[in-house]
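ok here's Pirin:
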Amino acid sequence: MAVPRAIRQAFLAIEQAEGAGARVRRSIGTAKLRNFSPFLMLDHFTIGKGAGFPDHPHRGQETITYLLSGGVDHEDFAGNKGTIGPGDLQFMTAGRGIMHAEMPHENPDGSPNVGMQLWVDLPQKLKMCEPRYRDLRASEIPEATVDDGRVTVKVISGQSHGVDSVRDLAYTPVWILDVTIRPGGRITQTLPQGWNSFAYTLSGSTVFGSNDSTRVIKEYHNVVFDQAGDYVEASVPENANSEARFLIVAGQPLDQKVVQYGPFVLNTQEEVYQAMLDYQTASNGFEKSRNWQSDIGKRMGL
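and the structure:
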């Protein structure tokens, strides 16, 4: 018999400053939620005019950026450039080393650029793989319609109610579902057994759980589910003032140690020291970083 996943904890993601002038609500990678393999960090970011994430390195993880509004430009030391707009995603595998910049657009109406960035750990054997990028455009993301149209699911990666995502975008298996529930709607979402999972609430109030075990969760909260169980259930009461929107994310846990120093995520202290040395000496994957400066980073006059 299918068993629901219980809520282990739910907490508000507090807004803080990050990068150069950006604001983020970080929920994974904080004292509240660490070591939640394969997830290393989750940021809900807001970056306005004159702010951003200028030139910086990474090694050993994948980053998934999902833009909710506005636009973000990207540029790296290998000559890769790109722009993502509302509803688009970029999946970046840092592997053995990347140096890049992520800079927001200056929108004509002055509105900020808002999105989610999730850091996913790489399996030990892939830590030193070649860097790569994959984009997923909003127009490519299939949708599932549930509960007579009261629930819509953008199937970014994974499966929901008979709809499969276009392709796998990360090396570590991860599901990402963007769910909108209108008043009176309900969804039961099956998740892969043994995977870690959470929901991040973007707007409205959502009732998570079923029967006599429910919790009403407001926006900007991370809802962490128990690893045991087959599905999560969410609903919005008939008399609610507005619809609710949240992400459901699940990932296959990695049985390995995480040693992180800023943008370097490896398995031992020695590997982290080596990453810092390689970056400082522009070697072993960071050769192209020597004297490299992004064009988009110059917008900040750095």
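+1. The two ends are 59 Å apart (CA to CA).
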